[in-house]
User: Fold this.
Amino acid sequence: MPHAHASAAAANRGRLVAVLVLTLAILAVEVVGGILANSLALLADAGHMLTDVAGVGMALLAIWFAGRKPTNGRTYGYLRVEILAAVTNAFLLFGVAAFILFEAWRRLSEAPEVASGLMLAVALVGLAANAGSLFLLRDAQRQSLNMRGAYLEVMGDFIGSAAVIVAAIVIALTGWTAADAVASALIGLLILPRTFALLREATDVLLEATPKGVDMDHVRQHIPMLPASLTAMTSMPGRSPRG
Assistant:
């Protein structure tokens, strides 16, 4: 099981590298576009993408550690590094969400002028790039918790880009510049539930909780002499805790 899990993660290294390159490119575009257009929504999406860069980088680092051979001091190897990376990534996302929500609240009281045309163009580029990243990770996210974390982040970026597009259209049609702050708040709120789910799954693995869908009473009925140590093995970090 651990070896299969590590092999699955390593097999997706190329996909993660491609996602990292795409994310870095769109991050640079959104920062420049957000400054020029004076759009908090674009900068908020860029901030989320910055955590994606950190998250994907940690995922790649975790894959490298997971591929190292066990030693006498670390008989299980370094597979738990992947789970620790997912936890760190979740806390980064919580911090970014809090910052976005604070800035959105501040701008709602005094909405500045926003260049909606540039805002729309940059958001469309971001949407296309995020769609490409989702395509690259769609299968890999079923095989690894850390891959799932990267997938959820990109999904959040995709929805965020869509929110920016809607806000840009509203501003262009109505002149209501507060739509930029509203879209920013929406991006911050969309980050939170997926981040909480990721943190909960990673914590379950660290606490060796029973995997979702496993009825331990049913297991004990059919294997009454199952040792507790073997029961705990169902929650070892080498498996995907939620399918």
User: Anything to note?
Assistant: The CA atoms of residues 56 and 143 lie 16 Å apart. The chain has one domain: 2-235. The domain at 2-235 is CATH 1.20.1510.10 (Alpha-lytic protease prodomain-like).
